[in-house]
Backbone:
């Protein structure tokens, strides 16, 4: 098949599903416990041959794009740390060869951290310059309500022992931080207390993936008006944000907060949960089949699978796929309702799973069903940034005690507005809390 070289906007993130099984049985898992059951028919593990073929496809793709691009290879699963060490060695050799030829490939891995990591595995990650994210959903009682093993036993204590052992053995530089799915049932104060006692106080908060146009967070359509007035996740996230601001602790980094503040100050870097101008990502299942981002797994059984494989198709051929075309040009699919919204530059239509339609598969032209939640959160951040950013009203306040770094941009952070002071996002009021300093 002859395919023209991809245009200026191409793929930069590749998610390799090294295993199609896991040693945990999380109740919200989109791989094993929601609509998608495709992993049951897949090989348990990606072969070494398939993994090496994927790396060669990345190198081939970079050449077709003219070279000089950077790629993030994310090792995922299932649980990727259960992949054989010999396979990791083979993959490392392939990555080293691609790098030697001028292809810039960064490596990351997402693990549940349940099983202690071997010295050889830690050495491999360090040799690759890799960073690892570990999934943990808050304090023990909350985490263990959802993240259990195959016998129904909680995972919290074993994960922290494993991570503590990693840090003790000098692997703290490998640990990028913890990924937490938002759960409004936890008190924001307790949540920040928990982060402060982690061995590494870097956390990213993840929007829930299960809410789609067919399954909105307010349930029946008749309840949307009530949900709009007090969106569950947006209200909780706003409370966590204000508590984070109140504590004024530079050692506690919450990626979502840093990213949004940076965007309000004119920054451009963002995770794929924000500013959906493009999601330049494709995945590869254990059998070598290209797949859409995991967000699509909630749309239906096998919805994330394509009919193309690393063994038979070049990466550039994915540019002819309609869904990937949408993902690489999401800014052209901005919902009409989002046009006049003052947060469109920070939001870009909202968290993608809330816009995915199952029939026909693709991205809806309506705003995300988490719009009200995101609106509340953005309004809260805007209020703080506008009040305390350099050059804005409040800069001279003597209670402004430090600068919080957001990527390459700095914002002065100090007091919170008084209780009862409100900012308005559309006609949705967002109430701000107590002051930082009495």
Residues:
């Amino acid at each position: 098949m002859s395919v023209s070289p991809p245009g200026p906007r191409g793929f930069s993130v590749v998610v390799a599903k090294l295993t199609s099984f896991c040693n945990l049985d999380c109740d919200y898992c989109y791989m094993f416990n929601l609509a998608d059951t495709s992993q049951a028919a897949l090989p348990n593990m990606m072969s070494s041959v398939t993994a090496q073929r994927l790396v060669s496809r990345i190198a081939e793709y970079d050449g077709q794009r003219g070279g000089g691009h950077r790629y993030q290879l994310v090792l995922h699963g299932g649980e990727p740390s259960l992949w054989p060490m010999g396979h990791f060695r083979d993959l490392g050799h392939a990555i080293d060869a691609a790098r030697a030829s001028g292809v810039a490939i960064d490596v990351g891995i997402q693990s549940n951290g349940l099983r202690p990591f071997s010295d050889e595995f830690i050495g491999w990650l360090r040799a690759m310059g890799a960073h690892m994210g570990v999934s943990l959903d808050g304090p023990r009682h909350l985490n263990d309500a959802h993240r259990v093993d195959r016998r129904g036993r909680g995972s919290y204590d074993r994960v922290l022992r494993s991570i503590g052992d990693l840090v003790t053995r000098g692997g703290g530089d490998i640990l990028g931080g913890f990924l937490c799915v938002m759960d409004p049932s936890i008190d924001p104060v307790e949540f920040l207390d928990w982060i402060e006692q982690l061995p590494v106080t870097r956390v990213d908060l993840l929007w829930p993936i299960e809410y789609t146009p067919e399954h909105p967070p307010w349930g029946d359509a008749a309840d949307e008006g009530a949900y709009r007035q007090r969106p569950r996740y947006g209200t909780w996230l706003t409370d966590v944000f204000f508590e984070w601001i109140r504590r004024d602790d530079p050692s506690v980094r919450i990626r979502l907060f840093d990213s949004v503040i940076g965007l309000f100050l004119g920054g451009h870097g963002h995770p794929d949960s924000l500013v959906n101008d493009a999601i330049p990502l494709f995945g590869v299942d254990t059998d070598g089949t290209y797949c859409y981002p995991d967000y699509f797994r909630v749309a239906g059984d096998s919805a994330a699978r394509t009919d193309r494989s690393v063994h038979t198709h070049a990466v550039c051929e994915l540019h002819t796929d309609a869904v990937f075309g949408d993902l690489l040009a999401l800014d052209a699919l901005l919902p009409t309702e989002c046009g006049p919204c003052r947060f469109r530059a920070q939001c870009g239509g909202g968290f993608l799973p809330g816009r995915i339609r199952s029939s026909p598969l693709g991205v809806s032209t309506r705003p995300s069903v988490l719009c009200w939640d995101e609106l509340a959160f953005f309004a809260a951040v805007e209020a703080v940034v506008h009040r305390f950013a350099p050059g804005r009203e409040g800069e001279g306040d003597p209670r402004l005690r430090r600068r919080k770094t957001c990527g390459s941009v700095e914002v002065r952070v100090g007091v919170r507005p008084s209780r009862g002071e409100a900012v308005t996002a559309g006609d949705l009021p967002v109430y701000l809390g107590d002051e930082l300093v009495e």
